[in-house]
Amino acid sequence: MSWDDLPDDLDQFASELRSHTATEVTADGLSMIMAHLKATWLTQKTMASGERGISIPPPRQKGIHPHNSVVERAELKFIFSLGADYEAQYMPRQADFQVCIGGSLVLDHCAIELEDHWRVDSHIFPPDPPPREPHPYIHFQRGGHAQDSFSRQPYFVPGQDLPEMKRDVWRGLMQFPGPRIPFPPHCPILAIDFAIGQHDGDIWKTLREQHGYRSVIKNAQSRIWAPFFDGLQNQAVRQRWMGPVFVT
Q1: Count of H-run helices and E-run strands, the chain
Q2: Which has fewest Cβ within 10 Å: 142, 172, 207, 216?
């Protein structure tokens, strides 16, 4: 599959998403920025969703913390850039996508606004100074700048604004940036498909039963994954993808 076909496949992808009630809003989000995506792909081989992001199905109401929380929404942002050295590197220069999940916890005396964040990053920062912890070139991890911004807002719990009560110890979940797990590159089509699959398997399976949807996903996988997995036979490509984790 040619990379020139990506905009047309994205068009068809939006049409297939529109066939399911749960992903109509995702199709609408793609359609709103489709002209921009096509223009930047034609001139720069780059696609970016912008700061607003695209609505996607939120996770099913299962295994959510804190207990009794209600999941209400989810958005995905992406930046995908093929790069001038794609043919030599077997992977795009940048294949980032970030997911924000919003919800709430209603208590007797107040309501708590909640967010969860996970993302796939491309490590394209300058090599000097190198990071202390290993960053595979394309990696999955939790958190991110959006989470940092959310947690700095007033009345974040647990935090300094927690009301003083007659208790010495409180409990909460702690999260750190790692682990950074090597992840195959995903174009915008595969990123959205991956997020839908992780959030709601029933919706994902219904979409994948559609011949047109499967065809778009197959094209996208062949376009980006066939050369990537072939390239992993080359030690230099494996070393670039795995980063400092790889021992030569």
Answers
A1: 8, 7
A2: 172
Q: Would you mind telling me the total number of residues written for the chain in this entry? A: 248
Q: Which helix (H) or strand (E) holds 18?
A: none
User: 2-20 burial by CB neighbour count: b if 16+ within 10 A, else e?
Assistant: eeeebbebbbbbbebbbeb
Residue 77 three-state SS: strand
* Rounded Cα gap, residues 159 and 66, in angstroms: 16
pLDDT digits (tens, 9 = 90+) for 77-131: 999 999 988 888 899 999 999 999 999 988 888 888 888 899 999 988 777 787 7
Q: Is 99 exposed, middle or buried (0-12, 13-18, 19+ CB in 10 A)?
A: buried
Q: Give the alpha-carbon dihedral of 92, 120, 5, 214, to 10 degrees.
A: 140
pLDDT by residue (tens digit) across 21-56? 999 999 999 999 999 999 999 999 999 998 889 999
How far, CA to CA in Å, does 210 sit from each of 92, 173, 189, 191, 192?
28, 40, 15, 18, 16
Q: H or E segment at 24?
A: helix 24-44
Distances (CA, A) of 133 to 177, 243, 244: 10, 11, 9
